[in-house]
UniProtKB/TrEMBL annotation:
The lineage of its organism: Bacteria, Pseudomonadati, Pseudomonadota, Alphaproteobacteria, Rhodobacterales. Residues 133-265 form the Glucose-methanol-choline oxidoreductase C-terminal domain. Residues 1-32 are annotated as: Disordered. Belongs to the GMC oxidoreductase family. Gene3D superfamilies: FAD/NAD(P)-binding domain, Glucose Oxidase, domain 3. It comes from the Bacteria. This is Glucose-methanol-choline oxidoreductase C-terminal domain-containing protein.
């Protein structure tokens, strides 16, 4: 890809997340606490389909809902027990890189945004995320009162590399959907929409259709001289306190975060028991 993505000039929902207060200073006793947040931003590209059996249409009628319930009651199969995504794919955003930097989660449904109802027509969503984002955000308390919401600033798409990868990911998704195997379903792009063409447009669209895939990590990094935790997961400035969760990852892993978090917990328990 020959990319000329420029900084996104327009505000986008995530790239410039609204703040709920001034940016608080980090705790001087615990430098690095709440810094370096990383996440996989999923770009939820969706297509309207013809003649496909999709969850949208099934779940949008009483008859469809009854069928879903009956299938589960009689066969323990169908929509009720199905995983949130039916297809996963790893891909490269550029041919020259050694390993995949994109992950797809494909679902037989579409909706405007999380929490909104499914569209009334058959559709699919091909969610694609950048597995090696460069952008870093922050999470900070805004007051000593635990009832006050923290200020979470993910800073998605804040580097040119991330914007370039986002543009590339949307283009690749369009190419996949244009393959002859999909032709019988006459896919029509809903999101981001064909009006987004240039790299700059696509980077902006990524901010519009992008949302967390729920993999926040790295707000309390381990290892390295400047990290808040040492290599045994202990706070450098507090005795006898270790942290073992997704926040300790120095940078986000290039895949889903649950298994690596379990691995961190297993390793921590071995260290605490003196077995590692
Ligand atoms: C909707 C969703 C879907 C996901 N899907 C996947 C997936 O398909 N694959 C995958 O690999 N990962 C997935 N993840 C990510 C994965 O769940 C997380 O990476 C992982 O759970 C992180 O583990 P953690 O221990 O860091 O945090 P958590 O699992 O959030 O654990 C934090 C724990 O701390 C507890 N806690 C919080 N505050 C306090 C307190 N003050 N006192 C005591 N306890 C407290 C909470 O109750 C919770 O049990 C998903 C996440 C979400 C939200």
């Amino acid at each position: 890809m020959t990319s000329t993505v420029q900084p996104v000039p327009r505000p986008t929902p995530f790239a410039t997340a609204p703040s709920n207060g001034p940016v608080p200073a980090s705790n001087p006793r615990l430098p690095g606490l709440g810094a370096e947040l990383q996440d996989h931003l999923q770009l939820r590209c969706s297509w309207r389909l013809t003649g496909a059996k999709a969850l949208n249409t099934l779940a949008n009628s009483l008859w469809g809902k009854a069928m879903i319930g009956a299938e589960y009651a009689l066969r323990r199969s169908g929509t009720m027990p199905m995983a949130p995504s039916q297809l996963g794919v790893f891909a490269k955003s550029r041919p020259e890189i050694a390993t995949a930097d994109l992950e797809y989660h494909v679902q037989p449904l579409s909706l405007g945004a999380f929490g909104e109802p499914l569209h009334s027509y058959p559709a699919l969503t091909a969610s694609v995320c950048n597995l090696r984002p460069e952008s870093r955000g922050t999470v900070h308390l805004t007051s000593p009162d635990f009832r006050d919401a923290p200020r979470i600033a993910p800073n998605y798409l804040s580097t040119e590399g991330d914007r370039r990868t986002a543009a590339s990911a949307i283009r690749l998704t369009r190419r996949i959907m244009a393959q002859s195997a999909m032709a019988r379903h006459a896919p029509e792009e809903i999101k981001p929409g064909l009006s987004f063409e240039t790299d700059e447009d696509l980077a902006h669209a990524a901010g519009e259709i992008g949302t967390t895939i729920f993999h926040p990590v790295s707000t309390l990094r381990m290892g390295g001289e400047d990290a808040p935790l040492d290599s045994t997961l202990r706070f450098r400035d507090l005795e006898n306190l270790r942290v073992a969760d997704g926040s300790v990852m120095p940078r986000i892993c290039s895949g889903n975060t649950n298994a690596p978090t379990i691995m961190i917990a297993e390793k921590a328990s071995d260290m605490i028991l003196g077995r590692a």
